[in-house]
């Protein structure tokens, strides 16, 4: 290899490309597993306790679906603040069910809308 110094670089490049290829296959496999879990109402990483216990936990649903836009302290961010909202419970249910502006519809199941809306209204 002392005669042609480019060979080690080509070997390293080939190993890097191979590593990227195999890591992408692993990522696709993980994506398939997550989609299968979502179809069965489970959450990846052991967060499926909400679905398996049968009881709806609004705070856990907030952490799973709403936290990234409405903030860790319900102060807002990309979405409006939820703390001290002036909306009625019915308006909150309507927004959760149908979405509004960038917020997608259907993040919370219809049977849990009342509990989620009451919980949001109770935030101080």
Biggest sheet: strands, sense, closure?
none
Mean pLDDT across all amino acids: 81
Structural shape: elongated
Q: What's the SSE pattern?
A: HHHHHH
Q: What proportion of the residues form beta strands (DSSP E)?
A: under 5%
Distance between the termini: 70 Å
Helix segment count?
A: 6
Total strands: the figure is 0
The helicity comes to 55-70%
Radius of gyration: 23 Å
Helix/sheet category: mainly alpha
The residue ranges in which pLDDT falls below 50 over 5 or more consecutive positions are 43-52
TL;DR of this structure?
This protein has helices at 6-39, 49-53, 58-65, 67-70, 89-98, 113-122.
Describe the structure.
- There is one protein chain.
- The protein is mainly alpha-helical.
- The protein has helices at 6-39, 49-53, 58-65, 67-70, 89-98, 113-122.
- Helix 5 crosses helix 6.
- It starts with 5 loop residues before the first helix and ends with a helix.
- Mean pLDDT is 81; it is low at 43-52.
């Amino acid at each position: 290899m002392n005669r042609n110094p480019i060979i080690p670089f080509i070997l390293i490049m080939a190993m890097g490309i191979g590593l990227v290829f195999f890591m992408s296959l692993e990522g696709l496999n993980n994506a398939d597993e997550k989609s299968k879990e979502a179809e069965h109402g489970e959450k990846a990483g052991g967060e499926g306790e909400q679905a398996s216990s049968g009881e709806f936990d609004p705070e856990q649903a907030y952490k799973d679906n709403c936290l990234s836009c409405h903030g860790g302290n319900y102060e807002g961010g990309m979405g409006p603040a939820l703390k001290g909202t002036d909306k009625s419970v019915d308006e909150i249910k309507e927004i959760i069910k149908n979405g509004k502006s960038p917020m997608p519809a259907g993040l919370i199941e219809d049977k849990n809308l009342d509990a989620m809306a009451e919980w949001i209204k109770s935030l101080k």
